[in-house]
Amino acid sequence: MKLSPNALGLAAALVTVLIWSSFIVVARASAAHNLLPLDIGFLRFVGAGCVLLPWGWWLMRAQRKLSQTSVESVGSLMGLSPLSLRITALTGLFGSMLYTMLVYSGFFFAPAAHASVLMPGSLPLWTSLLAIVVLQDHITRARAMGLACIVLGDMLVGGASLLKAFDGGEVWKGDVLFMSAAFCWSYYSVLVRRYALDPVRATIAITAFSCVSFVPVYALAAYAGWVPTRLDSAPASEMLFQAIFQGVGSVVISGITFNVMIRHYGPVRSTMITALVPGLSALGAVVFLNEPMSLNLLAGLALVTSGILFGVRVPKP
Question: pTM of the prediction?
Answer without folding.
Answer: 0.84
